[in-house]
Amino acid sequence: MGGIGKTTLAQIVYNDPTVENHFHLRAWVCASEDFDVKRLTKQVIESITYNHCELDFIESLQVRLRKILKGRRLLLVLDDLGSDHDEDCWLLFKQQAFSNGKPHEHPNLEAIGRKIVEKCKGLPLAIKTLAGYVNHGKIPSDLFEELRFLRVLDLSWTDLKRIPDSICELKHLRYLDLSATRISVLPESMCNLFNLQILRLIHCYKLRKLLENMRSLINLQYLFVSGDFGLKERSLIQETRTLVVLKQPRGIGRLTYLKTLPYFVVGQDDGFMLGELKTLQHLHGKLSISKLENVTDMLQAKEANLKEKKRLNELEFQWSDVIGNLQDGGDTDAVLESLQPHTGLKGLTIRSYPGISFPNWMMMGLVLQWCSLRRRKCPQCLKILTSAVAYN
Fold it and tell me: Measured in Å, how far apart are the chain's first and last C-alpha atoms?
């Protein structure tokens, strides 16, 4: 009979210190209705060693298990997965997932809920746990400890409000999608996901900040961030038409494998200066650079090394509408002159440029013969471009 707590009781005994001290090794394996000896043997080995087993033949698996168990006592729990009637499972799920027990008031969620029930394969405890996630938007802290070999995790478009610190247990994680969730803060423990290559944070409307030590994600290649962020400190952001940028993490230049960086906000402190872009040689697509008034001389601008970033096809340079005394007109001209991109650029946007002239590389058509320039709020430009440029 399912759902009466047999597995829960077995877990209490399994984790009891007295029991644990009596056995050299312990293994907990879920045995489904299709009793497969080879699969179960492999699961026992993996449960004991905490490592993935690459062996595929039953003979080699048995030899490996025999060597592991030689001279040792083993506690083996085979958790028999029973199955309940589909409608009984659905009834249990909707009672837990929907506060009023009326899924018809959420027609979009009902279809998703039935798919979740199907994946649970009749397990009452699994159904109740997952239904709780739907209802409360929470993930228990010990869940990731059981999924330590996970490579892909997609939690997008859920009601998730918080990521537990235990996500750092997913050492093998390559892909993480938290798009359109209700999270407001990313746990700093995510900085220990050293194998993470793709991080998606699209339409995270409540997100307040990115990771402070994101530079630790040394294998990160794709960072997708877009949509509106619900930041309380509006002074921390610069708006473009499709992107609201929050204060970026320090030292992003250490992410040398990074391939997408939709924005870069120039700061005055170490780790936020334009020179952080120097080492990001794999960037492609579009890059928007804002707060360029914080670049005080042409040497800082040259450190960005935009001319060598040949995979970028679109650039945006943006100054703030209200500029302090960091740049005068001549310095601004020199900064833009030093931001010369490669000649294969396909799109260039300049916003709120306070300089008195455009750079020589634009006037000479070194780039513009391949670009369309969209000029925004550049009232002080005294020279008129003679190249074939269409102004908006």
Answer: 71
User: At which residue do the structure tokens 């309380």 appear?
Assistant: 232
Q: Which residues pair with 350 in a beta bridge?
A: 317, 375
Q: Rounded to an integer, what distance in angstroms lies between the CA atom of residue 264 and that of residue 290?
A: 6
- In this structure, what DSSP letter does residue 153 have? E
DSSP letter string, 284-310: -EEEEEE-GGG--SHHHHHTT-GGG-T
Look at residue 303 and tell me whether its pLDDT is greater than 50: yes
The pLDDT tens digits for 366-383 are 555 455 555 555 555 544
Q: What six digits make up the tokens of 159?
A: 């009601």
Could you tell me how far CA 59 lies from the centroid of its own chain? 41
The Cα–Cα gap between 383 and 385 comes to 6
Q: How deeply is 87 buried, as exposed, middle or buried, from its count of CB atoms within 10 A (0-12, 13-18, 19+)?
A: exposed
pLDDT in tens, 32-90: 656 678 888 988 998 888 888 888 899 999 999 999 999 999 998 887 655 445 666 66
Residue 164 pLDDT class (50, 70, 90 cuts): confident
- Nearest by Cα to 161 from 192, 205, 198, 120: 205
For the question of whether the overall pTM of this predicted structure is more than 0.70, the answer is: no
Task: Tell me the two tokens of residue 15.
Answer: 């984790």
In tens, the pLDDT along 208-265 reads 778 878 888 888 888 887 644 443 333 333 333 333 444 567 888 888 888 888 889 8
DSSP character at residue 248: P
The two three-digit tokens of residue 188, written as one number: 């700093």
Decide if 192 contacts 169 (C-beta within 8 A): no
Distance from C-alpha of 391 to C-alpha of 368, rounded to nearest angstrom: 12
